[in-house]
């Protein structure tokens, strides 16, 4: 953020993109991109990430892995109930299947 504000400030002082790049030791394409974004949007803030947020948190994934490693014979329903009691997450059994498959557990 410091570089961005310095970049914009230097541009407002009528410095060239080459001079700004040399002063801040960053590529000219980066300086040009920041200035273009600032001119178009009036800000250099990044956009929020696209897509829906994941339902299962990293903590929930760790607990899920630990649960499966301890006892391999648990059903997805019982694992979902355990996660609800430990984490407070309301998770469907298909979500449990999907998360387990993504972490490398099959069957």
TrEMBL record:
<dbReference type="InterPro" id="IPR036388">
    <property type="entry name" value="WH-like_DNA-bd_sf"/>
</dbReference>
<dbReference type="InterPro" id="IPR009057">
    <property type="entry name" value="Homeodomain-like_sf"/>
</dbReference>
<protein>
    <recommendedName>
        <fullName>Transposase Tc1-like domain-containing protein</fullName>
    </recommendedName>
</protein>
């Amino acid at each position: 953020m410091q570089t961005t504000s310095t970049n914009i400030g230097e541009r407002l002082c009528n410095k060239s993109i080459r001079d700004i790049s040399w002063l801040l030791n960053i590529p000219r394409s980066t300086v040009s991109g920041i200035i273009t974004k600032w001119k178009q949007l009036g800000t250099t803030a990044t956009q929020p990430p696209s897509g829906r947020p994941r339902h299962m948190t990293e903590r929930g994934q760790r607990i899920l892995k630990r649960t499966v490693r301890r006892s391999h014979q648990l059903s997805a329903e019982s694992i979902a109930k355990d996660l609800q009691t430990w984490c407070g997450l309301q998770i469907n059994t298909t979500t449990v299947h999907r998360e387990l498959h993504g972490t490398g557990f099959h069957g």
